Amino acid sequence: MSAMPRNVPSSTDLHGVRWLRSSYSTGANNCVETARPCSGPLAGLLAVRDSKDPNGPALLFSPGSWTDFMAALVS
Question: Strand, coil or helix: what is 65?
């Protein structure tokens, strides 16, 4: 079994995803955006990209890893 990919070189490689930005974002492109690929080998993962570079790389997280990351931020 191959390891889960940790990123994609360009977030534009994630076809058919809807990128979401927090409602707390000021519109100054100083935040992150998230998307959930629904099909293919990345289905079920969470993609995260920098809103300042929408064509740049996206990091990929399993649901559990993202939950752990967010919990560590607020603790």
Answer: helix
